[in-house]
Design goal:
This protein is mainly β. It is about 5% helix and about 40% strand. The protein is built from one helix and 19 strands. Strands 3, 4, 5, 13, 14, 15 and 16 form a seven-stranded mixed β-sheet that branches. A hairpin with a 2-residue loop joins β8 (about 100) and β9. The chain starts with a strand and ends with a strand.
């Protein structure tokens, strides 16, 4: 019979699941839109949502750029002018980067850039959220439930989604929840309110960690 021992150091913070409040906002401006990023990689809590402030004339591309520059946990890889990958620092230690051919690429305002082949690019930290464009899948943007373009204008209170999904998707894929991202200086362990631990190889516990002066660590010991 297997038993699971779970211990927490620091404070466990249970996350609100929904789209009713903005707990983290970045940038400046008179208006605010919501940006939700979905990786679908089963590594940790997904569908991470934040508020992005902006002024008139902003586009979807401007909102994503402001989010990248304003929150050090979110990062991206760009080939020329196109975003080809997005990552997120799931343990909150602010050491994430993009690695290509064994070398970490510099990040400027949350973005690394490449001029050649990027298909071998990966997140430096294995357990970060990370998805890279492929022949079948790519990063696409939506306003509300409808596919949008990077150059589309943004209005106050728009619900913008950045989703890794099948190429040519015209309607935003359904999602079970939205997790309102906690501020980057909040220390603790964030869990969905309906989380469960599965002692099965390949399964993950849906959580994010945020480390500060107190180190929030989860120790999981599985034994017979």
């Amino acid at each position: 019979m297997k038993k699971l021992l779970l211990t927490f150091a620091a404070i466990a913070v249970f996350g609100y699941v929904g789209n009713a409040e903005v707990l983290t906002s970045v940038s400046t401006g008179a208006s605010q839109a919501t940006l939700t990023v979905t990786w679908g990689d089963q590594k940790a809590i997904d569908n991470l949502s934040m508020g992005v402030n902006f002024d008139d004339g902003a586009t979807v591309a401007d909102i994503v750029a402001a989010a990248l520059a304003g929150d050090a946990r979110l990062y991206a890889l760009r080939a020329g002018s196109d975003y080809v990958a997005f990552g997120f620092d799931t343990d909150g230690n602010f050491t994430s980067s993009v690695t290509l051919d064994g070398a970490a690429l510099p990040l400027v305002d949350g973005v690394s850039t490449v001029s050649g082949d990027y298909t071998a690019a990966k997140a430096t930290v294995e357990y970060d959220h990370w998805q890279l464009n492929s022949a079948a899948m790519s990063w696409q943007v939506f306003i509300g439930d409808t596919a949008a373009s990077w150059s589309d204008a943004v209005s106050a209170a728009d619900d913008i989604s950045l989703v890794y999904t099948a190429r040519g998707t015209t309607a935003r894929p359904a999602r079970e929840y939205v997790f309102d991202l906690r501020p980057s200086d909040q220390t603790g362990i964030w869990l969905l309110d309906n989380w469960a631990i599965k002692a099965v190889k390949g399964e993950v516990m849906p959580m994010l960690r945020q480390r500060g002066r107190l180190c929030a660590v989860v120790h999981i010991l599985l034994y017979r």
